[in-house]
Amino acid sequence: MVTASLYSAWHALALAGGVRYHSRKRIGRAVESMAETEIVVIGGGFAGVEAAWAAAERGSKVRLYEMRPDKNTPVHRTGDMAELVCSNSFKSNLLTNASGVLKEEMRRLGSLIVPIAERNRVPAGEALAVDREPFAREVTAAIEAHPNITVVREEVTELPAARPLIIATGPLTSDVFAAQIAHLTGGESLSFYDAVAPTVAADSLDMCKIFRASRRGKGSNLPALTADGESEATEEATAGEGEPDGAGCAGAPTDSADYLNCPFEKDEYLAFWKALTEAELAPLHDFEQDGNAAKMVFFEMCVPVEELARRGPKTLAFGAMKPIGLVDPRTGRRPYAVVQLRQENREGTLWGLVGFQTRLKWGEQRRILSMIPGLENAEFVRFGVMHRNTYVNAPRLLDMTCQLIQHPGVYLAGQMTGVEGYLESAAIGMLAGLSAHRLTLGLLPAVPPRETVLGSLCHYLVETDPKHFSPMNSNWGVVPEIPGPPIRDKREKGRRKGERALAAFDLFVQSLERD
C-alpha cells in the first residue's frame, strides 16, 4: 500500500514542479488491487516489447497481447514483434546528436531493442540502420523466451479490467480497440499521416551512373559496388581499412561513405520535379476514408516527396535532394541535385530511397522514379505507401509517466502518446513498463531528469499547450539550454548537452538501483 509518507513525498515533488499525481485515495486503491497481479501489455510493437521487457527484467510478471499474425494491419507483413514498417533507420548514433544520446540512455536503462539493433546493423554512415527481418525475429525470440513474459497471440477487443495496464497498440490500432481507447480518453485524439519510401534491388541499379560517397568526403570502410551490384573487394582485402572518425553510441561507426548517390543535371532535375507535381496519387486506405485528403496533416520529417515538390521547384533541391558535400567523381564537380540510397539489409541487396516517402500510385512510382539517373531499370521490391497515425492529446490526458490522469494504473506508450520515431516510441514504452512495475511495489514514480533526452520528451508531452500539441521526436530543442553564455557552435552545444544528459541519466539509473 502507498503510505502517508510516500504520498507526502510525491505531493512535495509535484508542488516543486515534478510529476502530475493522482489523488491519495486513487493511488492507494490502485496499488492495493495490484498485489500479485500480472502487468498486462497490449501491442507487440517497439513500445510494447520495451514496456514488457522493462517490467519483466525487474521481476514483474507480464502478459503481452499481440494480434498479429492472426489479424494483420494494412502495412505489416509478418507476425514478428517490433516489425519495421517505415524506414530501417533509427537515425544518428552520434553522441552530439539527441537521437544518439537517447539510444545511449535507453541502453543504460536496459533496453532490449538497442543492443539487438546493433547486432543487426547495416552500413548507414553515422546512422543506426538495421536489417529488418533478422532484427524483428531476434526481438520476437527474446520476448517469447523470457520466463516472466507470457505472449498471447490474439486481438484484444475490450479494455481489460487488469491493472497495471499498458496500451501500446501503435498508430494502426484495430478499429474495435480504437473505439475502446476513444471511450477511455473521452475522444481526445488527433492524427497525422506518415509515408514510407520505396526499396529497390541492388543488382538492378546502373552503377555506371551512380557513385558511392557520404557528404563532405567522409571515408568508407566498405567496398564499392560494381556495375553488377556486387562487392569489388573481398572481406580480407578491406578488413581494418578506413576506420571511421568520431564517437558514436557504444563506439558505433559514425563516418563512412555508405550511401549510393544518383546525380542530376539541372534539366534532369526540373523534368523529374515536374513529373512529381503532376503525378497521380493513390487513394486512401479504407481505414482512412474518414480523413479529408485536402486537409491532411503530415509529420514534417515524413512529408511525401510529391507534397514537398508542390511547394516549389527548389524545395527538394535544398531538402531531400540537396547535393551539399558531394562531388561526382565522373565530372569532378557537385551535381545540381542528388537522390541518395541507403542500404537496407546486411547483404547489401536492398536499398531504400532516402527521404522519398510517397503516396503515389504504384505505376506512377515506377514511371517517375525510373527517371532518377541509375534507376532507369530498377526493380522495386517495395513501393511507397502511406498510413494514418493516431495519437492522443497528451497534455490533457497524461501524467509525466504516461499514466492516464483519470484512470490510475492505465498507461499509454509509443506513438499514440505523441512521440514520433521508432526509438522515441520504444523509450516511452520502457518508461511505462518501469512505472507500472514500480506502481505494483508502491514506489514513487520515476521520470528521468529534465536534462536528459527521455526526460525532456516526457516534459514535452505534459507541458505543451494542448491547443498546439503535435508529435515530437528527439532533438536538442526540447532539452534545456546549457547555463551561461550562448554556445554558437552546434556540434559543441550538442556535445555539452549530450555529456550533461548522460551524467544526469547515470544518476537516475543509480537512484532506481537503490529502491
Distance between the termini: 16 Å
Strand content: 5-15%
Largest sheet: 6 strands, antiparallel
Q: What is the averaged pLDDT score?
A: 82
State the strand order across the main sheet.
Answer: 10-11-12-13-9-14
Derived from helix and strand composition plus strand pairing, the structural class reads: alpha/beta
The helicity comes to 25-40%
Instruction: Specify Rg, calculated over alpha carbons.
Output: 23 Å
List how many beta strands DSSP finds.
Answer: 16
Shape: globular
The low-confidence parts are 1-31, 219-248, 250-255, 285-295
SS field, number of helical segments: 15
Explain what you see.
There is one protein chain. With 515 residues, the chain is an alpha/beta fold. Helices cover 32% and strands 13% of the residues. The chain has 15 helices and 16 strands. The strands form 4 sheets. Strands 10-11-12-13-9-14 form a 6-stranded antiparallel β-sheet. Helix 3 packs parallel to helix 13, helix 4 runs parallel beside helix 13 and helix 4 packs parallel to helix 15. It is globular, with a radius of gyration of 23 Å. The two termini are 16 Å apart. The N terminus is likely disordered.
Blueprint of the fold:
Blueprint: H1 4-15, H2 24-32, E1 39-42, H3 46-57, E2 62-65, E3 89-92, H4 98-109, H5 113-119, E4 121-122, E5 127-130, H6 132-145, E6 149-152, E7 165-167, H7 175-185, E8 189-195, E9 199-201, E10 211-212, H8 235-238, E11 259-264, H9 266-278, H10 305-309, E12 337-343, E13 350-353, H11 362-369, E14 380-382, E15 386-392, H12 394-397, E16 410-412, H13 422-441, H14 453-463, H15 490-514
Parallel strand pairs: 1-2, 1-7, 2-6, 7-16
Antiparallel strand pairs: 3-5, 4-5, 8-15, 9-13, 9-14, 10-11, 11-12, 12-13
Helix pairs in contact: 3-13, 4-13, 4-15
